[in-house]
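tool_call: predict_structure(chain=1)
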Amino acid sequence: MNYIELNFDIFPPHYIEILMAALAEFGFESFLEHDTGFLAYIPEKDFNEALFAELDILKDDEFYKTYTITTIPDQNWNALWESNFEAVEIEQLLYIRAPFHPAKEGFLHEIIIEPKMSFGTGHHETTHLMAKLLMEHTIKDLSLLDMGCGTAILAILAHKMGAKPILAIDNDEWAYNNSLENIKKNDADAIEVLLGDASLLTNQAFDIILANINRNILLNDIPKYASVLKTNGLLLLSGFFHGDLPVIKQKAAQFELHFERYLVRNEWCACLLMKNEK
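tool_result:
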């Protein structure tokens, strides 16, 4: 099956996620960011260029955007994807690589991620921020939930840090299957993975919850997270812009979730909250 690749240049960069969301609704399956924008991929059979050109987001003059369209033959797909995948270093704490990258000494943790069509490879600012916040804490023997787990990279990191038990949830079947694959590659079979959303959270109780999704889903699901987070437990959130932090804090405060601190990277934000006693 051939794919269509769109190479977008975007400015300012915080519009990248907005455009990605619109393209996902149109049928694009995967995205890969680069220095000036991102690549977007859709099966050739699903791409209608005339309908695509009429998307309202493409006519929005609040941000600059240009794109080129290329057809990628099926036989070249894996090589193309791999050629765009670079290893990720988060200070001297975490090294994220594909199976075809060599191992590298000097890092506290190493994670191997199969570079298929997925978010959560560590390249995006939100994954970087969540990993950094998580590594600030001692989580050995603490129970942990990774909501919207994607490639399960954060759940795998938590496993390497000694958290247990760990539950990872994603509502995308491809992400679910890729999580299982990456968990096996990293000898983290103790992680349980479920296909679904926050409605699966009923009688569980967690010491730590990670949710790297998007602003609207976070606002909708914060009450559910609070209901399954233990007293004095930690909630780490990302997937939103720095400008959205006040509304996230306001919603969290309604459910005894006390704001602790936040990190920002290229306008993307991650924050740490703690559940107070009632």
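agent: The radius of gyration is 19 Å. Proceeding to next step.
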